[in-house]
Amino acid sequence: MLDLTGKNALVTGIANNRSIAWGIAQQLHKAGANLGVTYLPDEKGRFEKKVREVVEPLNPSIFVPCNVQDEAQMEETFKVVEETWGKLDILIHCLAFADKEGLSGDFSGISRESFTQSLEISTFSLGNMAKYAKPLMSEGGSIVTLTYVGGVKVIPNYNLMGVAKAGLEMTVRYLAAELGPQNIRVNAISAGPIRTLAASAVGGILDMIHHVEAVAPLRRTVTQLEVGNTATFLSSDLASGITGQVIYVDAGYEIMGM
């Protein structure tokens, strides 16, 4: 029943084959979507090479650099989408960043610079991408982003990212209200802790995973592909009545009090 044949999906945030965005891209491809992929450019081209190798089996028809702090690159990314596909149906936002200062020590000690950079990349970028995606979603569409329970509850060493994710979840609601009349749905997936490149920056990530495995109702954490399945569902017509929501894919951990 889940068929995305003929749908165009732009996926951001793939860093390597452990990325949640990679799990999402695989499942979108499996459902028949045409894929476009962005990567974070760097001077030596290392990220481009790594991401290109990872996504090669999915044969993306778009592969472009996109640093969300560079407005010209943002504009160019969606210009390529328009020129290649003519329309966009699905936008996957898997972008987040906080430096070491933002993920350790006293929260009150976080600098203005760290706070601003993290919120720009992790939170503002969703609304900014939606601005460019909106004209291309002429037949309606689905925007999906990634969040974490640290956006609603205090998680050790998550610090600044918790504030960024809280802002992201509220951004989802405001965008859903704005874009709903155009039949564009906006939702977030709150995934359980997974060993990814981004997660490795969070101190004690393995302890967090073991804790979830011990406490969550399913007595395990989740996989990238399980998150990918939910993202694919939210991107499909099967989820046509769902918008503005945060869907927990965390083996049930969020319901537990202790």
TrEMBL record:
Pfam families reported for this sequence: adh_short_C2 (PF13561)
Catalytic-site annotation from UniProt: Y148, Y158
Keyword Oxidoreductase: yes
Assembly and binders: Homotetramer.
Pathways per UniProt: Lipid metabolism; fatty acid biosynthesis
GO biological process, one term: fatty acid biosynthetic process
Taxonomy of the source species: Bacteria, Bacillati, Cyanobacteriota, Cyanophyceae, Oscillatoriophycideae
UniProtKB keywords: Fatty acid biosynthesis, Fatty acid metabolism, Lipid biosynthesis, Lipid metabolism, NAD, Oxidoreductase
The protein's name: Enoyl-[acyl-carrier-protein] reductase [NADH]
NCBIfam families listed in its UniProt record: PRK07370.1 (NF005615)
Binding site for NAD(+): G13, S19, I20, L95, K165, I194, R195, T196, L197, A198
Entry's family note: Belongs to the short-chain dehydrogenases/reductases (SDR) family. FabI subfamily.
